[in-house]
Specification:
mainly beta; two-stranded antiparallel sheet; about 45% strand
Length: about 80
Amino acid sequence: MAAYGQGASLTKSLDASSEKIQLKHVEAIYLHDEADGDRISWYDSKQNIVYTIIVNVKSLMAKKDLKAMAESMIID
């Protein structure tokens, strides 16, 4: 489990991999799990909101496409 933002957390299974990624000016966590799918989470300090996008259908969306979707939600 990784703490993020204002007490939000992500649970990571033993088989999953995670990494910090950059979405525009925001740091995010990308989590890849063969069984549960991919997700990107980030904290918006201005709005005090944690966002998470989950793709739970295997091979539905590439990492770069998921990252682009997340970046499109960030307002500069």
